[in-house]
């Protein structure tokens, strides 16, 4: 089932008196339960597309249907409520609040949507445990954590409201190899548990986690690669992805 569907989606910006067309008449479907990866060269429109699909930015033209709601017609206030209820966000920079403990960072996000503090506390603790963060870490502040721990905490914050989809923009871009793998393992587990994930990346390791890779270039989708369910150390899967990216000119 299509979770998100776009029709003639376009996005333009004014730059020096000229119009810069970043997205051009995109017809696109994102399917429920998928781990969708968006790749392409710098400036291709990857993050612009992600922000449009999530309602963080409005298209210039065209429409976006998100689980039956045309979010392109919502007001800014309506979009803010919609995002809190239905979207989780993971960015390259974690944006955790430095003056709050890890569990309080998660609770703050949860209590924006639900006033049932007891239920939110229980879910926060369950998720933090699932991603391998111990009670000792819950009480620490973001500056006391490793990059991988902080990113896993940010993923938990994104999940606490049970969003329909998790949007990730270069989720491993600021992490070393080990921390990046830990964050990807968490996103993969999230997806295996039925959560939809949409990730923008330049990173081949991140791209391998997706079951569907979209390649965008010059504001249009140049190709789609279906990889199937992620299996660790699947050589054929990696070869198929590399062949696709080479064909796209990556």
Looking at the structure, what is the overall shape?
A: globular
Supply the number of structural domains: 1
Provide the gyration radius in Å.
18 Å
| CATH class category label | Alpha Beta
Q: Helical stretch count? A: 9
- Beta-strand segment tally: 10
- Under CATH, the homologous superfamily reads P-loop containing nucleotide triphosphate hydrolases
Quickly list its features.
single chain, 250 residues, alpha/beta, Rossmann fold, 6-stranded mixed sheet, 4-stranded antiparallel sheet, 9 helices, 28% strand
Question: What's a quick, concise take on this entry?
Answer:
The protein is about 40% helix and about 30% strand. It is of the alpha/beta class and about 250 residues long. It has one domain: 3-Layer(aba) Sandwich (Rossmann fold), CATH 3.40.50.
Provide the fold topology.
Layout: E1 2-15, E2 18-31, E3 35-39, H1 46-54, E4 61-66, E5 69-70, H2 76-86, E6 87-91, H3 102-111, H4 117-130, H5 135-138, H6 147-159, E7 165-169, H7 177-192, E8 196-200, H8 204-208, E9 212-217, E10 220-226, H9 235-248
Parallel strand pairs: 3-8, 3-9, 6-7, 7-8
Antiparallel strand pairs: 1-2, 1-4, 4-5, 9-10
Helix pairs in contact: 3-4, 3-6, 6-7
Task: Characterise the protein shown here.
The structure is a single chain. This protein has 250 residues and is of the alpha/beta class. It has one domain (2-248): P-loop containing nucleotide triphosphate hydrolases (Rossmann fold, 3-Layer(aba) Sandwich). The chain contains 9 helices and 10 strands. It has helices at residues 46-54, 76-86, 102-111, 117-130, 135-138, 147-159, 177-192, 204-208, 235-248; strands spanning 2-15, 18-31, 35-39, 61-66, 69-70, 87-91, 165-169, 196-200, 212-217, 220-226. The strands form 2 sheets. The chain has a 6-stranded mixed β-sheet, with helices on both faces. Strands 2-1-4-5 form a 4-stranded antiparallel β-sheet, covered by helices on one side. Helix 3 (102-111) packs across helix 4, helix 3 runs parallel beside helix 6 and helix 6 (147-159) runs parallel beside helix 7 (177-192). It is globular. The model has no long low-confidence stretch (mean pLDDT 91).
């Amino acid at each position: 089932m299509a979770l998100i569907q776009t029709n003639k989606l376009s996005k333009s910006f004014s730059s020096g008196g000229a119009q810069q067309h970043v997205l051009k008449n995109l017809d696109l479907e994102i399917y429920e339960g998928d781990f969708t990866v968006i790749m392409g060269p710098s400036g291709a429109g990857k993050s612009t597309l992600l922000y449009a699909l999530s309602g963080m930015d409005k298209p210039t033209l065209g429409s976006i249907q998100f689980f039956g709601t045309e979010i392109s017609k919502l007001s800014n206030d309506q979009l803010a409520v919609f995002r809190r209820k239905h979207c989780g966000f993971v960015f390259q920079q974690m944006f955790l609040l430095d003056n709050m403990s890890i569990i309080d960072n998660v609770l703050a996000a949860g209590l924006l949507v639900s006033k049932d503090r007891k239920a939110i506390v229980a879910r926060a603790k369950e998720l933090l445990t699932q991603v391998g963060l111990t009670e000792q870490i819950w009480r620490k502040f973001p500056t006391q954590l490793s990059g991988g721990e902080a990113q896993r905490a940010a993923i938990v914050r994104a999940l606490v409201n049970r969003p329909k989809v998790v949007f990730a923009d270069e989720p491993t871009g600021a992490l070393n190899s080990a921390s990046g793998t830990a964050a990807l393992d968490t996103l993969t587990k999230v997806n295996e548990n039925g959560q939809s994930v949409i990730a923008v990346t330049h990173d081949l390791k991140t791209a391998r986690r997706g079951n569907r890779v979209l390649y965008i270039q010059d504001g249009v989708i140049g190709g789609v690669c279906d990889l199937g369910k992620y299996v660790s150390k699947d050589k054929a899967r990696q070869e198929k992805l590399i062949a696709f990216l080479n064909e796209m000119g990556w």
